[in-house]
Amino acid sequence: MEDLVKIKRALISVSDKTGLIELAQKLDELGVEIISTGGTLAKLKEAGVHVISIATFTGAPEILNGRVKTLHPKVHAGILYKRDNDDHLAEMSQQEYKRIDLVVVNLYPFEQTLADPNSTHNDKVENIDVGGPTMVRAAAKNSDSVAVVTEPTDYAGIIKELSENEGALTLETRKNLTSKAFALTARYDSAISGYFSGTAKPVSSTDDSGGENRFGLGFRKVQDMRYGENPHQSAAFYRLKGYEGPTLADAVQHAGKELSYNNISDIDATLDMILDYADPFAAVVKHANPCGAAAADNIADAYQMAYETDPLSAFGSIIGLNRIVDMEVAPLLHKTKFVECILAPGFTDEALALLRKKKQRRLLSLPAIAENLPTTDKVFKYVRGGILVQERDNLDLDPGQLTIPTKKQPTEEEMESLIFGFKLVKHVKSNAVLICKGKAAVGIGMGQTSRVDSSYLAVKRAGDRAKGGTCASDAFFPMPDGLEVVAEKGVTAFIQPGGSKGDPDVIAAADRCGVSMVFTGIRHFRH
Q1: Each residue of 240-282: pLDDT tens digit?
Q2: Catalytic residue among 6, 287, 358, 408
Q3: Tally of CB atoms within 10 A around 416
Q4: CATH class, range 399-519
Q5: Topology adopted by domain 249-371
Q6: 524 an active-site residue?
Q7: pTM score of the predicted model
Q8: Do domains 4-197 and 249-371 have the same CATH topology?
Q9: I want to staple 517 with a disulfide (CB 3.0 to 4.6 A). Which of 34, 37, 406, 522 is the partner?
Q10: Catalytic-role residue among 141, 175, 241, 254
């Protein structure tokens, strides 16, 4: 089994030609011999890519209107022979067959044809691919020595890896591609079987709203957990194959005991939060909820303010920072009582030496945090027998879309605090009410079954700090009571989505209390 396979010869035959030219040009540039068929061949020649026809390679013409073109021993022997088998090597030499290292194939659009209400039975039959799945399965079977690419979305990664490895692909990449290949042929054959059995429903790769209809997810185990949420539950941590965003699977642990299931769950919530801010930002997290958060001119001040949000809840917390931990902030972290884990882009040597003095405290570095990468990936939630899939909640406020329905207008400073709070409140479990002073949370009410209860929690935790502060609510106040509870403690400005039938009463209450209120038109539920 070869870790790196040098690509010397590739067979390309695709129905979907998205990204085809860029991939072929890179292969051509690397001196790879390219074999192709039909429309793919014409497209590549038109782009000036050096390519030979499948008929030239096999010595046999494409026949039966293209129904038979790649079904030839020269093709499948070139893909399937074992590179370390002497008998295979002897036969290949005797037959003067050549090796094929890369197969780039996507299939006739049977599923799209099935979804077309105007397609005939003959249309469907003619869009049943035979040679394509055969090549895909052959290449996937021999992934020890051959790479198979079935999705145009993988082309960019393949180009990058070929460039970095002098025209070679790694074993890990080939295995990942193989998983996708077999998932493709299984789904494809299932759709065809369903059509002929009369059980298939017309489907397409995308629905009318542009959302994907199917997800082929592959995972690789990162580590076993000591146990799950509770000691009687077994658990493990798996990485989503092909995921390129910031992930705890890439984090380096510098100190502390082994991470638990609950640790990873809470640290991931922390990671999600700190990636949302470009300014120096710190969060203190407990049970996937922030119990403290702040932004400041430097990371030490940000952490100090975040900790002061709720020092009691900070006991046994996860701390996340979006800046390198240096000797300005390290002493503050070190004196914090019982911290489960600290996550940051990195640590200076001096800071690491200090923080390692508490042996049980876990220290994790993830450099990608510092890049403030947008997290545009999808979010998955397992439910019994299936998964829910949604886009990540990344919508930022557009100040031009905000409306102010109250008599009192927020000041510039209040508006800045309101916008900070509304971004933070999306990371708090619903129902969520958050009180801020400037760019620091001072009172957080989360996870209650009524919004007024969340308001009571927020003001209780804020205490006297609520006076002169601002308040963010993840969803509308359905009645005036929640707003009144907070306004009575001296909060002067509110931000909420609006859109409730009770808006007129809530606006009237805000005017009676002499506070300003901003409507965003955006809701931030987090369940």
Answers
A1: 866 778 899 899 999 998 888 999 999 999 999 999 899 999 9
A2: 287
A3: 15
A4: alpha beta
A5: Cytidine Deaminase; domain 2 (3.40.140)
A6: no
A7: 0.62
A8: no
A9: 406
A10: 141
